[in-house]
């Protein structure tokens, strides 16, 4: 049954009508909701030409209005109980009309405790955003509020209007108390972190630069600690900005080669024509412009230590052949040289690309891949370890406050909430750059608020949706549901929204999932 219906949908035939010609007339297309006041008697319906086409007895009209009210009330109550946020509805004077289960959980007050009572009886007047919404006829979106000393929320409010008259207001509150408490806890200790780090600088472990306590990160670090004690070649994979070089450094510094050099080279940053000579050096006269006497390369510089080949997927095929020889024969040739040069280095490679796909495309050697991939370590992206974001934010705030010689600024809880919702395509590097930007743009002693964030930062809901649609378009609905729940960290409302299905459909399908 529709929540609204045309009068003609329940009208009686005109031949059954025995009323007066002076009775009130209504258009047959008029909706129940469009009746501004209840008539005192039966009504007749007319078409566009003024011809009578049917009639509605007064009692039937009242009965239909009653059924529509019951239907609307049922939808309303179901909606209140289905959302994951606290919802409050008040009349124009502030008397509470509705108070859903999430509001009960958040404030420890049952619906029976509060319904019919003034909202200001339970909250300080100045903290009730809903009343200012009613008085000013203007709502708010994602406004930070602290309605109780121990409760922090992001609140949306709107006035409720009938024929442009305010009849009440509604608020939707999302609980961010845990985020704010964590932020406050980190902020309270941030001032002493620099001194503490300086005091223990000599006692730092090689893993100190890798920040975070999330399980996925700790799992990767555990693998690092195991492989670092060996001489095995390591391939580190992960998206750009996750900190692959930090992992390579940690492997080197906890290895038996820790006292020898650690030499890093970005294969994607060196022109193709120069990468071979940069790695292996060249002999005198090897090419036009060569330095007299020749020049040693990175493998010479890393002798006895570790060479880190970042972005190995960008290495040209002809150089890949020569790197393979180094791995197989433990020797190399300089550009323009004919004598083999023995080498003793450990090779750690890293890439953000899919090397197996590159092998299929013919742009990466399969034999080199298997030589490099003795041990593979996957560094998780930041979006898979969001619990590490608050700690990283505070560390970067401290770092750049020291660099630019300004006090560590206070961070608005809503900014931290937005950080936790952001997909961070650029990972830790992007987060670090963002904090530096905020430190630079915010005035001294100014609280960092959402207004300081770049406009394109806020408009970021699409990447996750695209992940479901583009990367998993060949999956059935059950698999898409599993993926959506994983992407939204189990948030069923968000998962249903991403999939474009109702919560009811999601719940029904989840019952059949194994």
From TrEMBL:
<dbReference type="InterPro" id="IPR027417">
    <property type="entry name" value="P-loop_NTPase"/>
</dbReference>
<dbReference type="Pfam" id="PF02954">
    <property type="entry name" value="HTH_8"/>
</dbReference>
<dbReference type="InterPro" id="IPR002197">
    <property type="entry name" value="HTH_Fis"/>
</dbReference>
<dbReference type="Pfam" id="PF13426">
    <property type="entry name" value="PAS_9"/>
</dbReference>
<dbReference type="Pfam" id="PF25601">
    <property type="entry name" value="AAA_lid_14"/>
</dbReference>
<dbReference type="InterPro" id="IPR009057">
    <property type="entry name" value="Homeodomain-like_sf"/>
</dbReference>
<keyword id="KW-0804">Transcription</keyword>
<dbReference type="InterPro" id="IPR000014">
    <property type="entry name" value="PAS"/>
</dbReference>
<feature type="domain" description="Sigma-54 factor interaction">
    <location>
        <begin position="210"/>
        <end position="440"/>
    </location>
</feature>
<keyword id="KW-0067">ATP-binding</keyword>
<keyword id="KW-0547">Nucleotide-binding</keyword>
<dbReference type="InterPro" id="IPR003593">
    <property type="entry name" value="AAA+_ATPase"/>
</dbReference>
<dbReference type="InterPro" id="IPR025662">
    <property type="entry name" value="Sigma_54_int_dom_ATP-bd_1"/>
</dbReference>
<dbReference type="InterPro" id="IPR058031">
    <property type="entry name" value="AAA_lid_NorR"/>
</dbReference>
<dbReference type="Pfam" id="PF00158">
    <property type="entry name" value="Sigma54_activat"/>
</dbReference>
<keyword id="KW-0805">Transcription regulation</keyword>
<protein>
    <submittedName>
        <fullName>Sigma 54-interacting transcriptional regulator</fullName>
    </submittedName>
</protein>
<dbReference type="InterPro" id="IPR002078">
    <property type="entry name" value="Sigma_54_int"/>
</dbReference>
<feature type="domain" description="PAS">
    <location>
        <begin position="72"/>
        <end position="127"/>
    </location>
</feature>
<dbReference type="InterPro" id="IPR035965">
    <property type="entry name" value="PAS-like_dom_sf"/>
</dbReference>
């Amino acid at each position: 049954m529709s929540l609204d219906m045309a009068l003609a949908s329940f009208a009686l035939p005109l031949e059954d009508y025995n009323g007066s010609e002076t009775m009130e007339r209504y258009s047959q297309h008029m909706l129940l909701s469009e009746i501004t006041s209840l008539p005192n008697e039966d009504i007749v319906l007319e078409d566009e030409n003024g011809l009578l086409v049917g009639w509605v007895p007064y009692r039937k009209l009242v009965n239909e209005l009653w059924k529509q009210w019951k239907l609307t009330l049922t939808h309303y109550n179901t909606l209140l109980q289905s959302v994951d946020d606290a919802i409050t509805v008040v009349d124009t004077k502030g008397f509470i009309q509705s108070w859903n289960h999430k509001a009960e959980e958040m404030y420890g007050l049952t619906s029976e405790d509060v319904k019919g009572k003034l909202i200001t009886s339970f909250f300080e007047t100045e903290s009730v955003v809903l009343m200012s919404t009613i008085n000013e006829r203007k709502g708010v979106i994602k406004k930070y509020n602290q309605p109780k000393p121990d409760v922090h929320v992001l609140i949306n409010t709107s006035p409720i209007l009938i024929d442009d008259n305010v009849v009440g207001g509604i608020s939707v509150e999302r609980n961010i108390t845990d985020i704010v408490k964590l932020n406050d806890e980190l902020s309270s200790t941030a001032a002493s972190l620099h001194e503490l780090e300086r005091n223990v600088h000599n006692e730092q472990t090689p893993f100190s630069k890798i920040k975070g306590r999330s399980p996925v990160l700790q799992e990767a670090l555990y693998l690092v600690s195991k492989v670092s004690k060996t001489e095995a070649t390591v391939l580190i994979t992960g998206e750009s900005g996750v900190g692959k070089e930090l992992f390579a450094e940690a492997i080197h510094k906890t290895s038996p080669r820790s006292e020898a050099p650690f030499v890093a080279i970005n294969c994607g940053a060196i022109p193709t024509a120069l990468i071979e000579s940069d790695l292996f050096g060249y002999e005198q006269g090897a090419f036009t412009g060569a330095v007299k006497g020749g020049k040693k390369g990175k493998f010479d510089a890393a002798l006895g230590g570790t060479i880190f080949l970042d972005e190995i997927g960008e290495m040209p095929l002809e150089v890949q052949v020569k790197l393979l020889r180094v791995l197989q024969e433990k020797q190399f040739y300089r550009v323009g040289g004919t004598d083999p040069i023995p080498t003793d280095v450990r090779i750690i490679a890293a890439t953000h690309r899919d090397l197996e796909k590159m092998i299929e495309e013919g742009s990466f050697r399969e034999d080199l891949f298997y030589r490099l991939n003795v041990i593979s370590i996957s560094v998780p992206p930041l979006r898979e370890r969001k619990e590490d974001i608050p700690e990283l934010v505070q560390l970067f705030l401290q770092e750049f406050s020291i660099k630019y010689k300004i006090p560590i600024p206070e961070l608005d809880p809503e900014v931290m909430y937005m950080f936790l919702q952001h997909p961070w395509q650029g990972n830790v590097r992007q987060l670090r750059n963002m904090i530096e930007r905020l430190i630079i743009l915010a005035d001294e002693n100014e609280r960092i608020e959402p207004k300081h964030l770049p406009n394109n930062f806020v408009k970021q809901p699409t990447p996750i949706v695209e992940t479901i649609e583009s990367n998993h378009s060949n999956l059935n609905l059950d698999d898409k549901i599993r993926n959506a729940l994983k992407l939204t960290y189990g948030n069923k409302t968000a998962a249903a929204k991403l999939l474009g299905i109702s919560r009811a459909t999601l719940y029904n399908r989840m019952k059949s999932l194994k």
